[in-house]
Amino acid sequence: MGGSPRPSSALRVLVVDRDPEARFILKRALEQRIARPLMILETAATEAARLLLAEQAFDVLTLDLDTVGGLSGFREVHAAARATLVYASGEAHRVSDAVAAVREGAADYLEKPLDGPAFARRIERHFVVAEAIVPGDIGGLVGRSARMRNLFDQIARIAPAAAPVFISGESGTGKKLCARAVHARSRRADGPFIVVDCGSLGRDDLMLAIAGGDGNGALRRAHGGSLLLDEVGDLDPAIQTLLVRFIETGDVIGPSFDVEPVQADVRLMATTGRVPDDLVRRGAMRPDLFYRLNVLSLHLPPLRERPEDIVPIAETVLKRCADRFGTRLSRFAPAAEKLIAGHPWPGNVRELENLVQRIATLNDGEVVTAEMLADAGFGMRRAPASMQSAVERARLPDGGNAPADNAAARIRPLWMAEAQIIEEAIEAFDGNIARAAAALEISPSTIYRKRRGGAAPTRDDLPSIRFG
Length: 468
What we know:
CheY-like_superfamily, phosphoprotein
């Protein structure tokens, strides 16, 4: 049995093959290798397979081409299947069938006689990494939102392919980690994963880094694995020409162009923080290079577009800090959750991680409070949009209301103080907004409006005050 952690849900597998020995080989190999609950169904009939696929989804589906009626049958069953990984199987000498099946979407072609242990290792590697992606880590991909679940599904689908991958997203969203996840779940997972930071190197240095002069260029070092070209927005034309030739021929040519080319087997991946189509539109990238790199595409959404992921990410970072550094903070107070969930996070996940690590390092206790957020500098630079507009309207023409530099660290924004007071009052009265409003001497509607980030209170929001 493998040594991967045992998740609570079973790995669901359907094997479709009229050969009972082939079904036995795959089933036995999975049972001996996979260290998690298994539900393996097998059938010798295509119609039975269709019925099963109509009733439930599977993590792994293997289709013997002879059993399902060749490539046309494979195409039909595959199109109707709800499965993460679909494999075709058939005789080893049918090279054209293998190529066609992969083009039709198969993760791979399993040659007969079947190598059960090799198949089981591939499945183990794929789903062990899948389980690692969802919970996340410091710097990890974490998400419960529909957009992130869709991203995880896309990673699972494209990772087994050999085509280049183009990853877009704002700075701090996790593009490098996404590329690592694709590599880790690919058939090249045992090979090298090389990263070249294209945005930080000049033309000559970047050419040397990619092509090398004495066999140490990234393209050669990534042989058998993956090469990530990070931030490809402004590649020099000569480098673009080199990459186009490599994609077309597999030839690596040194910077001097006076040596014999060397063949390298590399899966290319590229990232950009810009809108991908704009790279071609504004002439930053040759169309032929762009379309060769942008065969399979992934987009990481900014944190502000998936606010439901903010608290889970922050809690994941807290847990990792506790595991690594022995810190005690393990959760966020409701007031603190409200604050971080409503923040726009222009620096995305990287900004959130940095804040949480700073708080975990500087504070004791078990609960992160709104005061801890303020002390760590949260909100000093940017308030919610509704609050910002009010601040702009109130600002003096000469900007005289701006605090002095030496006072900035001591003065908290009014919106943050208000939010903390309101949330602490609600928490003190066990969520009873009416009682919290009475204690604060404001009306409940003011609390509702401020929690929504609405406008300032009107006269009707103020409590009635009687004199004498």
